[in-house]
Write a structure and sequence with these properties.
The complex is a heterodimer.
Chain A lengths: L2 E5 L3 E2 L5 E8 L7 E7 L5 E8 L4 E3 L7 E6 L4 E6 L8 E9 L1 E5 L3 E5 L2
Parallel strand pairs in A: 2-11
Antiparallel strand pairs in A: 1-3, 3-8, 4-5, 4-9, 5-6, 7-8, 9-10, 9-11
Chain B lengths: L3 E4 L2 E4 L5 E7 L12 E6 L5 E6 L3 E2 L7 E6 L2 E6 L8 E7 L6 E2 L3 E5 L1
Parallel strand pairs in B: 2-11
Antiparallel strand pairs in B: 1-3, 3-8, 4-5, 4-9, 5-6, 7-8, 9-10, 9-11
Classes of the chains: A mainly beta, B mainly beta.
Chain lengths: 115, 112
């Protein structure tokens, strides 16, 4: 069974970087696409970007200057880094596999940006 | 960016009733390869979103046939028949035809 698990700090200071890890079990990240999505307070959802089976990436242009998605295939993990965060980046962050849509999701990690 | 407008924003339905959610796109979601990448999700309280329907009308593994998707071009609909308590939550549409991928604003399904 495909399982994803996000990990990382729940509190980040403004202007610092947010770094999250998605650990995948039951499926290799060298297949398919692997994305990051966030849900803001309220209902708004935003696709942030993905890393492909080959390591290529695609990012939401609204984040392009601040975001980086990388991976470690030996650990079957992929990572999100978001630089220069503000309070507007406070959200629940999800990692997910993108196959037929986002078909498998992590449980999400709530990140608050606050001093 | 493609804007997906979901209506209604909230829906009060009796158990056993039928719900219908609309997702209207600001541009056609037909990809150059002929496929339409419009998907539906349900986020139950305290859970991650789960995929219900992919590419307009295909039910994901384990999704009961009470859920059905239809539509084409810019207008899409999710129907839920014989609503059960486990169907409550927020429904989202997502398009993956155009970059950036975008979500609808969500429709909250509650019991009457």
């Amino acid at each position: 069974e495909v399982q994803l698990q996000e990990s990382g700090p729940g509190l980040v200071k403004p202007s610092q970087s947010l770094s999250l890890t998605c650990s995948v079990t039951g499926y290799s990240i060298t297949s398919n696409y692997w994305g990051w999505i966030r849900k803001f307070p309220g209902n708004k959802m935003e696709w942030m970007g993905y890393i492909s089976y080959s390591g290529s990436t695609s990012y939401n242009p609204s984040l392009k200057s601040r975001i980086s998605i990388t991976r470690d295939t030996s650990k079957n993990q992929f990572f999100l880094q978001l630089n220069s965060v503000t309070t507007e980046d406070t959200a629940t962050y999800y990692c997910a596999r993108s196959s037929y849509g986002f078909d498998y999701w992590g449980q999400g990690v709530m990140v608050t940006v606050s001093s | 960016d493609v804007v997906l407008t979901q209506t209604p924003v909230s829906l009060l339905i009796s158990l056993g009733g039928q719900a219908s959610i609309s997702c209207r796109s600001s541009q056609s979601l037909v990809h150059s390869n002929g496929n339409t990448y419009l998907h539906w999700y349900l986020q139950k309280p305290g859970q991650s979103p789960q995929l219900l329907i992919y590419q307009v009308s295909n039910r994901f593994s384990g999704i009961p046939d009470r859920f059905s998707g239809s539509g084409s071009g810019t207008d899409f609909t999710l129907k839920i028949s014989r609503v059960e308590p486990e169907d409550l939550g927020v429904y989202y549409c997502l398009q993956r035809t155009h970059n950036p991928w975008t979500f609808g604003g969500g429709t909250k399904l509650e019991l009457k």
